[in-house]
Amino acid sequence: MAEVKNDKGMDIDTNLYSRQIGTFGMETMGKLIKMRVLISGLRGCGVETAKNLILAGPKKVVLHDDGLVTQGDLGSNFYCSPSHVGTTPRSEASIASLKELNPYVDVSIKSGEIDNAFLANFDVVVFTEGNLSKMLEFNEFCRAQTPAIGFIMSRNFGVSGNVFVDFGEKFRCFDPNGEECKSAIISGITNEETGIVTVHEDKRHGFSDDDHVVFREIEGTTELNGSEPLPIKVLSGFTFSIGDTSKMGQYVRGGIVEQIKVPQYLKFHSLRESLDNPIPEGKDMLDVPDLAKFGRSEQLHLAQYAVMEYQARHGSLPVANNKEHAAECVAIAKEKKETTKLMLEELEEEVINNVALYAECQINPMSAFLGGIVAQEIVKFTGKYSPLRQWIHFDAFETLPQGEVDRTPKGDRYDDQVKIFGCELQKKLGDLKYFLVGAGALGCEFLKNFALMGLACGEGKVVCTDNDNIEISNLNRQFLFRKENVGASKSVTACASARRMNSTFNVEASETRVGPENEHIWNDEFWNGLDGVTNAVDNINARMYVDSRCVWYGKSLLESGTLGTKANVQVVIPHKTQSYGDSQDPPEESIPMCTLHNFPNNIDHTIQWARDVFEGLFTDGPQEVQSYLKSPQEYLQGLKKEGNSNTQR
């Protein structure tokens, strides 16, 4: 086991966390492994958050949920089993499996009521269930601490949900995006009150408003060389302004402008204030996660606020598909519309009904989505990446059935899905024949989702193939694997784990590579028998080949991929949408740092890696030493002011 120590002397397992270190950096990992987190509420969203966070490696995670496991929980909490129903609290049902995810994390249970004194033991607290009045009380307490305790609330209401983040009055974000600092060659600088810098026409500068930059090697306007970082305002892809340059020298030629990351101090408002005025300072609208739904976030905020207020008044959420309860939520939303500062011309009652009618249901797809967001927001408490400001509201109302369906619960694990989508859809899911290509990080998540949703749990079948074996570094993000599985087949191990989540899940593992050389196995009969395909592979060639097969046989394809903290999804429907191979991503301007530092895999990567190492050893390092020797106090003050600049890698 390879370990290194962070700046506080704590060990970090570089084998287990290799890719995460490449993405987050050692500074962020050092902060993360000291973090203490409370997660209250372990239905779908809560257990997804816990799973994701424990894999990331904080110091301590405490679970809180005294509610007994219900049949409905089996459709969203993948660590609950039928034997737990009606007998075991969710926290006790989940803890053994959550502990197995990461031996470096102290995972424990809190039973009974939570009070303010208990919250004082944590750096971040997360609530996915609970009465609104308690959330308001806890949030005020967290804000009043020095330093503030990070407060996150997330609520999943059927096919809609939200996340709220409050990191206190003055939160320091030292790296807002995690990207490598950009640089550009200068071709001109004007002399005027609003000096304009023009970069060479061969390449856009890539800067954003309020970025800070420094200059070097300029001839003529030498006052800018080595100056303090200057904020900029972007005028175009090739120009930006830097303030008054009227008294500086006339630009002659040359020069390089380089982005510098300066810490940002962010002010968060309390939950009480944000409920009535959710739009943060400097913005005129809430964030829009789905660009096809402008204005929907404001409507969702009122609808979800009304449902939380209903729960506060009655002690429970509206009963699923109860029109009287939904009507009361509409009335509450109308009251709130008059008291909030949201500028809405009219209230969309359909949105409120869609939230209220299914609010008591938690289904796996929404839980997985929200749990991923919440876990990443916890990581952002380290100061790496910009946190949410302060709400995100999301819905998938377009998935609701049109017309009448049978929403009568059957008393089984799929009841929450049936209450939303009806028995007819559940039957279709159970009978699907599906092909999953890849059993890595995404593949593990898909298998879990398929099992909980009931896909291929009737007459259907899922075939999952992956010719790779499990490595130590996989354990940090491929949650169906354990240390004792290292060296074993990914597909065989993942399918067995998913089957334990739902014994009726009909899944077959294969270790045969999907490619031209195996078309005698993945033949016409196989492809013609499928209802759809999901890609979860990590290379372009495999994606292109699977896409070509789907085009040839007229099969739907769910294409997805991840790179560090970035991800993409493409839904391909035959004869209706573009196929994966029809489009091509623009070339990346720079190589991602996680790839460059840990997994250089082509000649461009290795050349850039060598240049990076050379520059660090023979340019950046000596320059830093010279700067320090010249003026130690000024140098140290500059580090605090400039934050995470290139020379601090």
Main attributes of the structure:
globular; alpha/beta; 7-stranded mixed beta sheet; 7-stranded antiparallel beta sheet; 649 residues; disordered C terminus; single chain; 18% strand
Overall description:
The protein is built from 20 helices and 24 strands. The chain is α/β, with parallel strands linked by helices. The strands form 5 sheets. The chain has a 7-stranded mixed β-sheet with strand order 5-4-3-6-7-8-18, with helices on both faces. Strands 13-12-16-10-11-15-14 form a 7-stranded antiparallel β-sheet, with no helix packed on it. Strands 21-20-19-22-23-24 form a 6-stranded mixed β-sheet, sandwiched between helices. Strand 7 (150-157) and strand 8 (160-166) form a beta hairpin.
Helix-strand blueprint:
Blueprint: E1 3-5, E2 11-13, H1 18-24, H2 26-32, E3 36-40, H3 44-56, E4 60-64, H4 90-100, E5 106-109, H5 116-119, E6 124-127, H6 132-144, E7 150-157, E8 160-166, E9 171-173, E10 183-189, E11 195-199, E12 212-216, E13 230-231, E14 233-234, E15 239-243, E16 256-260, E17 264-266, H7 271-276, H8 296-314, H9 323-339, H10 349-356, H11 364-380, E18 391-395, H12 415-421, H13 423-430, E19 433-437, H14 441-453, E20 461-465, H15 490-501, E21 507-510, H16 524-528, E22 532-535, H17 540-553, E23 556-563, E24 566-572, H18 593-598, H19 603-630, H20 632-642
Parallel strand pairs: 3-4, 3-6, 4-5, 6-7, 19-20, 19-22, 20-21, 22-23
Antiparallel strand pairs: 1-2, 7-8, 8-18, 9-17, 10-11, 10-16, 11-15, 12-13, 12-16, 14-15, 23-24
Helix pairs in contact: 1-2, 3-11, 8-9, 8-10, 9-10, 12-13, 14-15, 19-20
